[in-house]
Specification:
The protein is an alpha/beta fold. It has one domain: TIM Barrel (Alpha-Beta Barrel). It has 16 helices and 12 strands. An 8-stranded parallel beta sheet has the order 4-11-10-9-8-7-6-5. Strands 1-12 form a two-stranded antiparallel ribbon. Strands 2-3 form a two-stranded antiparallel sheet. α7 links the parallel β6 and β7. α1 packs antiparallel against α16 and α15 crosses α16. The protein is globular, with a radius of gyration of 20 Å.
C-alpha cells in the first residue's frame, strides 16, 4: 500500500493511491470513460505497438527537451491538459496545478468548467496559460469567456470540438456522480469513509464553476451529470464557420482540441488554427474510436509542416512521449497523468508527477543517444 506521494514513482502508483484516498464517485469520475472503455484502454496500449531504436556511443552529456507550441517555449515536451472540476479532487485545484506547471516551465490548461476564475489564475500563475473553451448555446457566455481571456492575457485559446453530445459514461451512472455532488445515502457513506477529502470539501471555500456561475446555474447550484451538461448546455450546431468566427474574435494563438482525422486537420489550417490537439477526450466520448497515437503519423505527414500537432491521451511514461515526438508531434499533453497526483497531494503531488516524467524523458533521451528532441525522428522507431 502506498502511504505518501514520495512512494509514487509513476502514474499507476498515483492512480492506486487516489483509489484509496478518494470517495468512489470522485475516483471513478477521473478514472472512467465511455461505454466499454475500449478507446480509453487503447489510448495507452497503442504505444506498445512500436519500439524505440536507440543509438549508442553518442556522447550525450547535456539534454535539451525544450519545445515551442502555440508561440510558447516549454521547458519540457509535456503539459497539463485542461480538465474540469479540479477543486472537487483536491481543494488546491487549478491553482495548485498551475503552480506546479510553473515550477517545471510548462503550459497549464484551464477548462471552461474550471473551479478557479480566469482572473484568479492570471494573478497567481505566470507560466504559459491556455484556456479551453466549451462553446455554449449561450453566446453571451462564450463572448464573456473570450473577453476575460484577452483581458487577463492568456497565451492561447483551444476550442474543444468533440462534445456535440455527452458521452455515455456508465461509471458515473452507477455511482450517481453529479456536479454539485449528489449526497445520496450510498455516496454519503463513501464520503464519510474518506474524512480527509470530506473535511476539505465541506470546510474550504464553496465549490463552484467559477467562470460560468454568473451566466448559468447548472453545475454550481443546479445538479447535473457532466454528460447531461454537454448535451443540454453546449452548442451542438457548432460548425467550421462558427470556429472561424471564434478565432477572429480571439485574435491570438488558437487551437482545436479533439481533431482525429486528416480531413479535419486540413480544415483546421483553413480556419486559421495555430495548433491541433489529437484527442478523443480521454475515451470519454466516442468509444471504439482511434487513439491519438494511432492517428499521429498520418496526420503529421499531411499537415505537420503547416501547424503544431500535439498528441493528447494515454500518456503514462516518458517513452510514450518520446515515441510521439519521434512521429512528429511537437509536444504531448495529458489529464489523468496529473489528476491522480492532484487528488492525493495537491500541488506537491502534481510536482512529483511532472518530476517523474521529466526524469524519465531525460534518462530515456540519454539511452536513445539524442541530446535534443529535434533529433528524434521516424528513423528511431519501428512498428511491430
Amino acid at each position: 500500500m502506498f502511504k505518501s506521494i514520495e512512494n509514487c514513482n509513476n502514474v499507476n502508483d498515483f492512480r492506486n493511491l487516489a483509489k484509496q484516498k478518494l470517495p468512489s464517485p470522485i475516483f471513478h469520475y477521473i478514472d472512467g470513460a465511455a461505454d466499454d472503455e475500449s478507446t480509453y484502454k487503447r489510448n495507452t496500449l497503442a504505444y506498445d505497438d512500436c519500439d524505440l531504436v536507440p543509438n549508442v556511443l553518442a556522447g550525450v552529456n547535456k539534454i535539451d527537451m525544450t519545445t515551442t507550441i502555440l508561440g510558447q517555449k516549454l521547458d519540457m515536451p509535456i503539459y497539463c491538459a485542461p480538465t474540469a472540476l479540479q477543486r472537487l479532487f483536491h481543494h488546491e485545484g487549478e491553482i495548485g496545478v498551475g503552480k506546479a506547471a510553473e515550477k517545471f516551465g510548462t503550459m497549464f490548461g484551464v477548462s471552461s468548467l474550471g473551479t478557479a476564475s480566469i482572473e484568479e489564475i492570471a494573478k497567481q500563475i505566470s507560466s504559459p496559460k491556455l484556456f479551453q473553451l466549451y462553446v455554449h448555446k449561450d453566446q453571451g457566455l462564450n463572448k464573456s469567456l473570450i473577453e476575460s481571456c484577452k483581458e487577463f492575457k492568456f497565451d492561447a485559446l483551444a476550442v474543444t470540438v468533440d462534445t456535440a453530445v455527452g458521452g455515455n459514461r456508465e461509471r458515473d451512472l452507477k455511482t450517481g456522480f453529479t456536479i454539485p455532488m449528489n449526497l445520496s445515502f450510498k455516496s454519503f457513506i463513501s464520503f464519510i469513509s474518506h474524512p480527509s477529502w470530506a473535511y476539505n470539501y465541506f470546510t474550504k471555500p464553496k465549490w463552484e464553476l467559477s467562470n460560468l456561475k454568473k451566466h448559468i446555474s447548472e453545475g454550481t447550484n443546479v445538479m447535473t451529470s457532466v454528460g447531461d451538461y454537454f448535451t443540454k448546455m453546449l452548442d451542438n450546431s457548432l460548425d467550421w464557420k462558427g470556429i472561424e468566427t471564434i478565432n477572429k474574435h480571439w485574435g491570438g494563438q488558437f487551437a482545436l482540441k479533439g481533431i482525429m482525422s486528416v480531413e479535419d486537420a486540413k480544415k483546421a489550417i483553413d480556419v486559421g488554427a495555430s495548433a491541433i490537439m489529437l484527442s478523443n477526450h480521454g475515451g470519454r466520448q466516442l468509444d471504439g474510436s482511434r487513439s491519438p497515437f494511432d492517428q499521429l503519423s498520418e496526420i503529421v505527414d499531411a499537415v505537420g509542416d503547416k501547424i503544431d500537432v500535439i498528441c493528447e491521451g494515454g500518456i503514462r511514461r516518458g517513452t510514450h512521449i518520446l515515441k510521439a515526438l519521434s512521429l512528429g508531434a511537437k509536444a504531448c499533453s495529458g489529464g489523468r497523468m496529473y489528476l491522480y497526483a492532484l487528488a492525493v497531494g495537491g500541488q506537491k503531488g502534481v510536482e512529483r508527477a511532472l518530476g517523474n516524467l521529466k526524469r524519465e524523458i531525460e534518462r530515456d533521451m540519454i539511452l536513445m543517444g539524442v541530446s535534443s528532441i529535434d533529433q528524434l525522428s521516424k528513423k528511431n522507431i519501428k512498428f511491430r
